[in-house]
Write a structure and sequence with these properties.
alpha+beta, Jelly Rolls, Arc Repressor Mutant, subunit A, 2 domains, six-stranded antiparallel beta sheet, two-stranded antiparallel ribbon, 10 strands
Length: 266
């Protein structure tokens, strides 16, 4: 990727927000112009740029929210990227925007289209002089957007159990539903079927291992994440990422979401 200069700082939201927002990630970097792959994960992505825009096939955005997805989102850039990314839980879509995460699945939309204070949020972040101040502004603005949330208990339980690695058949038995009914209700809430969500969660675990300070071998990652063999790992990675693990690492690391930086003091 030819990284010239990179600044990356992460922070935790205020405790009141953490059921809905799990992490803030501030970035400022210069590289050669190119593309970045936004990879599938269990989080929705809220981005506020401090300079420029996020350029997607759907258009150019100064602020956006992207839903859960099962393939890479291709982002083009001119070599300079500066902004803040917020990782939202699926419940965060209901708390912040008043809609199930399923309504945003597979798409990215401007925050203004979600009746969010996009302009105010961007102005506050751009006038702040430190990452700590920017994260504090996020706490205040996002905290002011929170509304009461209700979610079907069985669907929320299914998400929790999938994250623990429990199989879909066992989860259906636990909640007393057929697999078909569970799949339909789960997809309506999240936009992914339970089987596909489990696949994305496994991919995310593998991705986190490859981004860690101590990078294991691909064989170790495949075994630790439950892939049947290296070929299975490569096929699944290519389907969800659009490149093999080796190709992705050569193109993307280090990047904004590269090896994990220390958290900013709070």
């Amino acid at each position: 990727m030819g990284v010239v200069d990179v600044e990356h700082v992460v922070g935790l939201p205020h405790p009141r927000l953490r059921p809905f927002v799990t992490r803030y990630s501030g970035y400022r970097m210069r590289t050669a112009p190119g593309i970045h792959r936004g990879l599938p994960s269990r989080s929705l992505t809220l981005v506020v740029t401090l300079d420029g825009t996020v350029d997607l096939p759907e258009g150019r955005f100064a602020t956006l929210c992207g839903g859960l997805h099962d393939e890479a989102v291709i982002i083009t850039h001119d070599g300079f990227q500066h902004g803040v990314q917020c990782d939202l839980t699926p419940l965060g879509a209901r708390a912040l925007f008043g809609m199930p995460a399923g309504e945003l699945a597979g798409v990215s939309v401007g925050l203004d289209a979600l009746d969010a204070p996009a302009g105010e949020l961007r102005d506050r972040l751009r006038t702040a002089t430190t990452w700590l101040d920017r994260f504090a502004h996020l706490d205040r603005v996002l905290g002011g957007m929170l509304r009461p949330v209700r979610q079907q208990v069985e669907v929320a339980w299914a998400w929790h159990r999938l994250a623990e690695g429990v199989g879909v058949r066992d989860i259906a038995a636990e909640v007393g539903w057929s697999r078909q009914h569970l799949s339909a209700r789960f997809a309506a809430e999240y936009g992914l079927t339970p089987k596909l969500a489990a696949r994305v969660m496994r991919f995310e675990r593998a991705n986190r291992m490859l981004r860690g300070q101590r990078r294991p071998t691909l064989t170790e990652v495949a075994a630790a994440c439950g892939y049947t063999d290296q070929a299975h790992f490569n096929r699944d990675w290519r389907a969800l990422c659009g490149a093999t693990p080796t190709e992705w690492m050569a193109a993307e690391l280090p990047f904004v979401q590269g090896s994990e930086p220390p958290e900013v003091a709070r």
